[in-house]
Amino acid sequence: MTGPWAGAKPGTGEPDGSDPDRFSILFVCTGNICRSPVAEYLTRAALSIRLGPAAAHALATSAGTWGHEGAAMEPFALQVLAERGIDGTEFRARELDAQMVAAADLVLAATREHRAGAVVLYPRASARVFTLREFDRLTAGVDPAGLPANVVARGRALVRQAAGRRGLAPPATAGDDDVPDPYGAPLAIFRRCADEIIAVLRGPVDRLASPAPPMPATSSAPHVSPGSADGFAAVE
Questions:
Q1: Band of the pLDDT at 67, cuts 50, 70, 90?
Q2: For the whole model, what pTM was predicted?
Q3: Quick one: which of 160, 146, 153, 165 has its CA closest to 211?
Q4: Which of 26, 38, 80, 157 has the maximum number of C-beta atoms within 10 A of its C-beta?
C-alpha cells in the first residue's frame, strides 16, 4: 500500500511504520509555535527526569494543522519554557501530515478541532487520537500497577485503555476538552497555558513512567525551582 494510508497494520489502530522499540507521542495545535511545542518540550523534560536512560524509548514531537513550517516558537512560549529550565530555541515548526499521524502511538491535540483534523488526515488512527484534556480524563482511573513494565508496551497499553473508556467519562461541557490558544496574548496568558498543559500531562506521565509523589500547585509567577518529583519543574 502506498500514499497516506501506508504505515498502519490492516484492521488495527496501531502504527506500523514507527520504531517498535519507541513509544511516540505527537502533540498537535494550529501553528505549532505555541501550545504543541510547549507540550512537547515539557513532556521530553519530564520523561527524561522520570525515566532516565529509558527515556530513549519514548519520543515526543509536535506539528500544526496550519503549521508555520520552519518557524521558531513564539517568544513567550520560549520564555515559559525557559522559566522552567527548558531551552526551546532549536525548535522549528512543522505542518501536520498523514504520515506523522500514522506513525504516532499517541496523538494529543490541543482542541477537538485539532483532534478532528488529525483523524481526517488518517482515519485509521482515530483510536489513538485524543485531546490533551480528554486523555488525562480517560486515563485517570487506570491503575499504573496493572500496566506492563516496559515503557513502549506500557504506553501502548495506556492508549488502548483510554480508547476503551471513551463515552464512560464525558466532560461536563464539550469545551472542557480544549486548551485555549494563547497566540497574540500577553505573557501571563502563556504562563497560564503552560500551567494548564502541565496539569493535564502530570497524570499521563505518572502512568507512563510510574507513580510519583504529589506535586505542589503551579503558579503564574516566573520564579522556578529545580526539577520536581514528577518531572515537571515546580513554579514557586
A1: confident
A2: 0.85
A3: 146
A4: 38
